[in-house]
Specification:
0% strand; 7% helix; 1 helix; little secondary structure
């Protein structure tokens, strides 16, 4: 799904995995390796957004609005 946009997949975690990923006691990579998997395409939506997102001055929700 993301290949036409970029050659790398961002790390996307399911909410149920947040605690494991952020656990400060987790010091061994093997503890989080199972989380390093492609996020299911059927749970994602792809849409164009404005180039506003490229400017750090535009720090608001309008950066996420679909581009018309």
């Amino acid at each position: 799904m993301l290949a036409p946009i970029h050659n790398r997949m961002p790390m996307i975690l399911a909410p149920k995995d947040y605690e494991q990923w952020l656990d400060p006691e987790q010091q061994v990579a093997d503890g989080v390796k199972p989380l390093l998997r492609p996020y299911p395409s059927d749970l994602m939506t792809v849409y164009s957004i404005s180039l506003r997102v490229n400017n750090p001055k535009n720090d608001d929700s309008r950066c996420l609005e679909p581009w018309r």
